[in-house]
Amino acid sequence: MDAAIEGEVGLTPNRTPFYRVLPVEKTLTGETKQVNVDQAVSDPRTVLPLDIASEMVKAEPLVAVADCYCRAARKIVGKDCGHPLETCLTFNELAETLLEAGLARRIDHAEALQILQGCEREGLVHFVDNAEGRIRSLCNCCPCSCILLSVLKRDQGNAGGPSRYMIRYSGKNFPGLELCAELCPMDALSYNGVLTVDHKRCIGCGLCVSRCQELGHEGVLRLVPRGKHPRIHKSNEALWKQITRESAVGLIMNKIKGIKD
Questions:
Q1: Where are the beta strands (DSSP E) in the chain?
Q2: What is the pTM of this model?
Q3: pLDDT tens digits for 226-249?
Q4: Helix (H, G, I), strand (E, B) or coil at 39
Q5: Upper half-sphere CA count for residue 18 (Cβ side, 13 Å)
Q6: Which of 25, 97, 37, 31 is closest to 64 using CA atoms?
Q7: Where do the structural domains in the chain lie, given as residue ranges?
Protein backbone atom coordinates (compact mmCIF):
# COMPACT_ATOMS: atom_id res chain seq x y z
CA MET A 1 0.00 0.00 0.00
CA ASP A 2 2.77 2.50 0.86
CA ALA A 3 4.11 2.39 -2.72
CA ALA A 4 0.70 3.18 -4.13
CA ILE A 5 0.17 5.94 -1.57
CA GLU A 6 3.40 7.60 -2.53
CA GLY A 7 2.54 7.42 -6.20
CA GLU A 8 5.24 4.86 -6.99
CA VAL A 9 2.78 2.51 -8.62
CA GLY A 10 3.77 0.33 -11.54
CA LEU A 11 1.76 1.61 -14.48
CA THR A 12 0.79 -0.52 -17.45
CA PRO A 13 2.82 0.19 -20.60
CA ASN A 14 0.11 2.16 -22.39
CA ARG A 15 0.58 5.53 -24.08
CA THR A 16 -3.04 6.70 -24.02
CA PRO A 17 -4.00 8.36 -20.69
CA PHE A 18 -6.94 6.95 -18.73
CA TYR A 19 -7.97 10.45 -17.62
CA ARG A 20 -7.59 14.02 -18.82
CA VAL A 21 -7.67 17.39 -17.09
CA LEU A 22 -10.75 19.60 -17.18
CA PRO A 23 -10.03 23.32 -16.75
CA VAL A 24 -11.68 25.55 -14.16
CA GLU A 25 -14.89 26.38 -15.99
CA LYS A 26 -14.93 30.15 -15.46
CA THR A 27 -11.51 30.46 -17.11
CA LEU A 28 -12.77 29.09 -20.45
CA THR A 29 -13.46 32.36 -22.20
CA GLY A 30 -12.24 31.24 -25.62
CA GLU A 31 -9.46 32.60 -27.80
CA THR A 32 -10.02 36.28 -28.62
CA LYS A 33 -10.15 37.49 -32.19
CA GLN A 34 -9.79 41.19 -32.93
CA VAL A 35 -12.71 42.44 -35.09
CA ASN A 36 -11.82 46.12 -35.11
CA VAL A 37 -10.06 48.63 -32.91
CA ASP A 38 -12.93 48.92 -30.43
CA GLN A 39 -14.46 45.44 -30.39
CA ALA A 40 -13.33 41.92 -29.62
CA VAL A 41 -15.38 38.73 -29.70
CA SER A 42 -14.56 35.28 -28.39
CA ASP A 43 -14.30 32.36 -30.75
CA PRO A 44 -16.81 29.75 -29.47
CA ARG A 45 -15.05 26.96 -31.38
CA THR A 46 -12.34 26.93 -28.73
CA VAL A 47 -14.79 25.97 -25.96
CA LEU A 48 -16.65 22.69 -26.46
CA PRO A 49 -19.09 20.80 -24.21
CA LEU A 50 -16.39 18.18 -23.58
CA ASP A 51 -14.40 20.91 -21.78
CA ILE A 52 -17.24 22.05 -19.49
CA ALA A 53 -17.48 20.12 -16.21
CA SER A 54 -20.97 21.35 -15.28
CA GLU A 55 -22.46 20.33 -18.62
CA MET A 56 -20.97 16.84 -18.26
CA VAL A 57 -22.30 16.41 -14.73
CA LYS A 58 -25.81 17.67 -15.52
CA ALA A 59 -26.06 15.29 -18.49
CA GLU A 60 -25.75 12.17 -16.30
CA PRO A 61 -28.92 10.78 -14.65
CA LEU A 62 -27.24 9.19 -11.62
CA VAL A 63 -24.51 10.91 -9.61
CA ALA A 64 -22.76 9.69 -6.47
CA VAL A 65 -19.83 11.00 -4.46
CA ALA A 66 -17.14 8.95 -2.73
CA ASP A 67 -14.00 9.64 -0.72
CA CYS A 68 -10.80 10.26 -2.65
CA TYR A 69 -8.93 6.95 -2.42
CA CYS A 70 -5.50 8.61 -2.51
CA ARG A 71 -6.15 11.07 0.31
CA ALA A 72 -8.05 8.48 2.38
CA ALA A 73 -5.14 6.02 2.07
CA ARG A 74 -2.61 8.64 3.16
CA LYS A 75 -4.82 9.63 6.09
CA ILE A 76 -4.86 6.02 7.31
CA VAL A 77 -1.05 6.00 7.54
CA GLY A 78 -0.92 9.41 9.23
CA LYS A 79 -0.14 11.49 6.15
CA ASP A 80 -3.34 13.53 5.88
CA CYS A 81 -2.75 16.50 3.56
CA GLY A 82 -5.76 18.41 4.87
CA HIS A 83 -7.73 18.58 1.62
CA PRO A 84 -11.37 17.39 1.69
CA LEU A 85 -12.00 13.67 1.26
CA GLU A 86 -15.48 13.44 -0.27
CA THR A 87 -14.59 14.71 -3.74
CA CYS A 88 -14.72 11.82 -6.22
CA LEU A 89 -17.83 11.93 -8.42
CA THR A 90 -19.06 8.77 -10.12
CA PHE A 91 -21.92 8.31 -12.55
CA ASN A 92 -24.49 5.77 -13.70
CA GLU A 93 -23.27 2.12 -13.65
CA LEU A 94 -20.10 2.87 -11.67
CA ALA A 95 -22.12 4.97 -9.22
CA GLU A 96 -24.61 2.11 -8.79
CA THR A 97 -21.79 -0.33 -8.02
CA LEU A 98 -20.29 1.94 -5.34
CA LEU A 99 -23.71 2.74 -3.86
CA GLU A 100 -24.55 -0.97 -3.55
CA ALA A 101 -21.21 -1.56 -1.82
CA GLY A 102 -21.81 1.31 0.59
CA LEU A 103 -18.76 3.19 -0.71
CA ALA A 104 -20.57 6.28 -1.99
CA ARG A 105 -23.70 8.32 -1.43
CA ARG A 106 -26.17 9.52 -4.02
CA ILE A 107 -26.33 13.27 -4.64
CA ASP A 108 -28.24 15.59 -6.97
CA HIS A 109 -26.73 17.76 -9.69
CA ALA A 110 -26.80 20.88 -7.52
CA GLU A 111 -24.64 19.28 -4.81
CA ALA A 112 -22.29 17.82 -7.43
CA LEU A 113 -21.71 21.31 -8.85
CA GLN A 114 -21.16 22.69 -5.34
CA ILE A 115 -18.51 20.00 -4.78
CA LEU A 116 -16.75 20.97 -8.03
CA GLN A 117 -16.72 24.65 -7.04
CA GLY A 118 -15.41 23.81 -3.58
CA CYS A 119 -12.64 21.70 -5.11
CA GLU A 120 -11.57 24.63 -7.28
CA ARG A 121 -11.38 26.88 -4.21
CA GLU A 122 -9.18 24.20 -2.59
CA GLY A 123 -6.83 24.21 -5.59
CA LEU A 124 -7.78 20.69 -6.70
CA VAL A 125 -7.53 19.59 -10.33
CA HIS A 126 -10.49 18.05 -12.18
CA PHE A 127 -9.72 14.76 -13.96
CA VAL A 128 -12.36 13.08 -16.13
CA ASP A 129 -12.41 9.97 -18.33
CA ASN A 130 -10.37 10.58 -21.48
CA ALA A 131 -13.41 10.01 -23.71
CA GLU A 132 -16.44 11.75 -25.13
CA GLY A 133 -20.00 10.72 -24.37
CA ARG A 134 -21.14 9.32 -21.03
CA ILE A 135 -18.63 9.73 -18.23
CA ARG A 136 -17.95 7.21 -15.46
CA SER A 137 -15.93 9.30 -13.02
CA LEU A 138 -14.68 12.81 -12.28
CA CYS A 139 -11.89 13.00 -9.72
CA ASN A 140 -10.58 16.10 -7.98
CA CYS A 141 -6.89 15.68 -7.28
CA CYS A 142 -4.25 17.43 -5.18
CA PRO A 143 -0.50 17.40 -5.90
CA CYS A 144 0.32 16.40 -2.33
CA SER A 145 -1.54 13.07 -2.27
CA CYS A 146 -3.02 12.01 -5.61
CA ILE A 147 -1.41 9.51 -7.95
CA LEU A 148 -2.53 11.16 -11.21
CA LEU A 149 -0.72 14.41 -10.46
CA SER A 150 2.23 12.54 -8.95
CA VAL A 151 2.92 10.60 -12.14
CA LEU A 152 2.35 13.67 -14.31
CA LYS A 153 4.97 15.54 -12.29
CA ARG A 154 7.37 12.70 -13.10
CA ASP A 155 6.68 13.27 -16.82
CA GLN A 156 4.65 10.07 -17.13
CA GLY A 157 1.56 10.83 -19.19
CA ASN A 158 -0.02 7.40 -19.44
CA ALA A 159 -2.29 7.84 -16.41
CA GLY A 160 -3.57 11.37 -16.85
CA GLY A 161 -3.17 13.81 -19.70
CA PRO A 162 -3.45 17.61 -19.99
CA SER A 163 -6.54 19.55 -21.00
CA ARG A 164 -7.02 20.97 -24.50
CA TYR A 165 -5.66 24.29 -23.18
CA MET A 166 -2.52 25.87 -21.85
CA ILE A 167 -1.80 29.19 -20.19
CA ARG A 168 -0.59 32.32 -21.90
CA TYR A 169 1.06 35.11 -19.90
CA SER A 170 0.62 38.73 -20.99
CA GLY A 171 3.92 39.80 -19.44
CA LYS A 172 2.27 42.24 -17.03
CA ASN A 173 3.30 42.23 -13.39
CA PHE A 174 1.23 43.11 -10.35
CA PRO A 175 1.38 42.70 -6.55
CA GLY A 176 0.10 39.24 -5.72
CA LEU A 177 1.12 37.57 -8.97
CA GLU A 178 3.20 35.18 -6.88
CA LEU A 179 -0.08 33.86 -5.40
CA CYS A 180 -1.15 32.74 -8.86
CA ALA A 181 2.17 30.96 -9.35
CA GLU A 182 1.98 29.22 -5.96
CA LEU A 183 -1.33 27.61 -6.92
CA CYS A 184 0.16 25.68 -9.87
CA PRO A 185 0.05 21.93 -9.05
CA MET A 186 2.74 21.13 -11.63
CA ASP A 187 5.35 23.76 -10.67
CA ALA A 188 4.98 25.16 -14.18
CA LEU A 189 5.03 28.70 -12.80
CA SER A 190 7.76 30.30 -10.75
CA TYR A 191 7.97 33.85 -9.45
CA ASN A 192 11.08 35.77 -8.45
CA GLY A 193 10.08 39.34 -9.09
CA VAL A 194 8.99 38.25 -12.56
CA LEU A 195 6.83 35.32 -13.63
CA THR A 196 8.42 32.43 -15.52
CA VAL A 197 6.24 29.87 -17.33
CA ASP A 198 7.32 26.33 -18.25
CA HIS A 199 4.78 25.48 -20.94
CA LYS A 200 5.97 21.87 -21.14
CA ARG A 201 4.75 21.31 -17.59
CA CYS A 202 1.45 23.19 -17.90
CA ILE A 203 -1.55 20.82 -17.86
CA GLY A 204 -4.13 23.53 -18.55
CA CYS A 205 -6.07 23.19 -15.29
CA GLY A 206 -6.74 26.95 -15.13
CA LEU A 207 -6.19 27.26 -11.37
CA CYS A 208 -3.64 30.06 -11.79
CA VAL A 209 -5.94 31.90 -14.21
CA SER A 210 -8.81 31.61 -11.74
CA ARG A 211 -6.70 33.08 -8.93
CA CYS A 212 -5.65 36.02 -11.11
CA GLN A 213 -9.30 36.65 -11.97
CA GLU A 214 -10.17 36.66 -8.25
CA LEU A 215 -7.40 39.20 -7.65
CA GLY A 216 -8.93 41.48 -10.28
CA HIS A 217 -6.29 40.96 -12.99
CA GLU A 218 -8.33 39.52 -15.83
CA GLY A 219 -6.25 38.63 -18.88
CA VAL A 220 -2.79 38.62 -17.28
CA LEU A 221 -2.96 34.83 -17.36
CA ARG A 222 -5.48 33.17 -19.66
CA LEU A 223 -6.18 29.80 -21.20
CA VAL A 224 -5.71 29.35 -24.94
CA PRO A 225 -6.10 26.21 -27.06
CA ARG A 226 -3.02 24.04 -27.42
CA GLY A 227 -1.42 23.99 -30.83
CA LYS A 228 -1.93 20.23 -30.95
CA HIS A 229 -4.94 19.01 -29.01
CA PRO A 230 -4.54 15.78 -27.04
CA ARG A 231 -6.68 13.01 -28.51
CA ILE A 232 -10.00 12.36 -26.79
CA HIS A 233 -11.57 9.01 -27.67
CA LYS A 234 -15.16 8.80 -28.91
CA SER A 235 -16.35 6.64 -26.01
CA ASN A 236 -15.12 4.87 -22.89
CA GLU A 237 -15.33 1.59 -24.80
CA ALA A 238 -13.03 2.92 -27.53
CA LEU A 239 -10.67 4.37 -24.91
CA TRP A 240 -10.26 1.09 -23.03
CA LYS A 241 -9.89 -0.97 -26.19
CA GLN A 242 -7.00 1.28 -27.16
CA ILE A 243 -5.40 1.09 -23.72
CA THR A 244 -5.77 -2.71 -23.68
CA ARG A 245 -4.08 -3.02 -27.08
CA GLU A 246 -1.22 -0.73 -26.08
CA SER A 247 -0.75 -2.53 -22.75
CA ALA A 248 -0.66 -5.96 -24.39
CA VAL A 249 1.92 -4.84 -26.95
CA GLY A 250 3.96 -3.09 -24.25
CA LEU A 251 4.02 -6.13 -21.98
CA ILE A 252 5.14 -8.36 -24.86
CA MET A 253 7.91 -5.91 -25.78
CA ASN A 254 9.02 -5.72 -22.14
CA LYS A 255 9.32 -9.51 -21.97
CA ILE A 256 11.31 -9.54 -25.21
CA LYS A 257 13.65 -6.90 -23.78
CA GLY A 258 13.86 -8.73 -20.46
CA ILE A 259 12.14 -5.93 -18.52
CA LYS A 260 10.26 -7.17 -15.44
CA ASP A 261 6.67 -6.05 -14.88
A1: 19-22, 32-36, 39-42, 63-67, 86-91, 105-107, 125-129, 137-141, 160-161, 165-169, 189-191, 195-197, 221-225
A2: 0.84
A3: 888 888 999 989 998 988 888 776
A4: strand
A5: 16
A6: 97
A7: 18-30+51-239
